[in-house]
Amino acid sequence: MSAVPRVLYYAIGGGLGHLVRAGRFLRAQDLAENALILSASEHAGDARLSSGVAVRRVPSELQHDIPALREWLARAIEDFVPAIFCVDCFPAGILGELAKLPALRGIEMWHVARLLRWSEYAPLARAAPHYAMAWRLEPLQPEQERWLRELCVEVRDCCIPTPAMPPQTLPNGRAFWLVAHSGPRQEVSELIDYAMEQRRVEMADVSIAVASFDPPLPLPEDCIPITAAPLAGWYASAQRIFGAAGFNFVNETEGFRGKRVLLPLPRSFDDQFERARRSREA
User: Fold this and answer.
1) Which runs of consecutive H residues, i.e. helices, occur in 105-217?
2) Dihedral angle computed from the Cα positions of residues 54, 210, 186 and 241, in that order, rounded to the nearest 10 degrees
3) Best label site of 85, 161, 177, 278, fewest CB within 10 Å?
4) pLDDT one-digit tens code per residue, 145-179
5) Full-model pTM
6) Does domain 7-157 have CATH number 3.90.76.10?
7) What is the spatial distance between Cα 48 and Cα 43, in angstroms, rounded to a whole number?
8) What is the mean pLDDT of residues 73-95?
9) What's the pLDDT score for residue 1?
10) What tens digit of pLDDT does each residue of 4-17 get?
11) Which stretches within 140-271 are classed as H helix?
12) Could you tell me the CA-to-CA distances from 176 to 171, 233, 258 in Å, in that order?
């Protein structure tokens, strides 16, 4: 049996999506036991989010300092000595920090690709490394697809499974709607307000469960906080599910389209509005 290669997974970006996706991808490819995730998330130490894969947190002060980030990353590569360097979502890095990075020479490069606002990201992508493999999580914009096939030796479609969980119930035993969003607080508040307005209009006799690591406190009356992860069991039990149109949420709730409500949010590069449009058409 061949040895599992050492994989350094670069998962830099806002929210929890990059960290969660990294762990699940590595588990799905049977690479978790010899992998390290580089994440900027303040929740990087939560093994539930990384699927138990080892994580090293990128210092927060480097996130807008490209030279310092490149230097830190070069040291991380030297320390870990990966056979594969896997880049989540942003092929040149979220700031372009991977462009022509000498530390990547001689390492097999992988890219995990999701839908981007390609017209916004393309200027950074011009100097991206070349990739031996791209794992495509969802259909891309035509321009992004063409770029991917020009830069990557091989492109494969990839499905990231959601962990199974038994159905969950609230402590009060009531029927509930679920608001699920990792933050920031203002966005969680907007989703809660929308769910509460829908509850009022429909005169629904339900509690509202709020699954967030950064909820707006205090929560409105009859809103109950949840800090569980993953949320599969809560999705199954909720009468309705409210969330943004990030890749992870859409992927995790694909089996619950009939009760899912997507409120796409503006992002610099993630194309949530196109993802939501495709979901409505489907």
Assistant:
1) 118-125, 142-151, 185-202
2) 100
3) 161
4) 999 999 999 999 999 998 889 999 998 899 999 99
5) 0.94
6) no
7) 10
8) 97
9) 47
10) 899 999 999 877 89
11) 142-151, 185-202, 232-237, 247-252
12) 11, 13, 16
Round to whole Å and give the CA distance between 26 and 32.
Answer: 5
Structure tokens given for 203: 């005169």
Q: Name the one residue in this structure whose structure tokens are 């030279």.
A: 67
**What is the tens place of the pLDDT at every residue in 213-250?**
989 999 998 999 998 999 999 999 999 999 999 999 99
Closest C-alpha to 210, from 220, 201, 200: 220
Residues 176-281: name the CATH superfamily.
Glycogen Phosphorylase B; (3.40.50.2000)
Task: Yes or no: say if 155 and 192 are a contact pair by the CB < 8 Å rule.
Answer: no
Q: Report the C-alpha gap between 194 and 182 in whole angstroms.
A: 16
Count Cα neighbours of 178 within 13 Å in the Cβ-side half-sphere: 28
Task: Calculate the average pLDDT of the chain.
Answer: 94
Domain with CATH 3.40.50.2000 in the chain: 7-157, 176-281
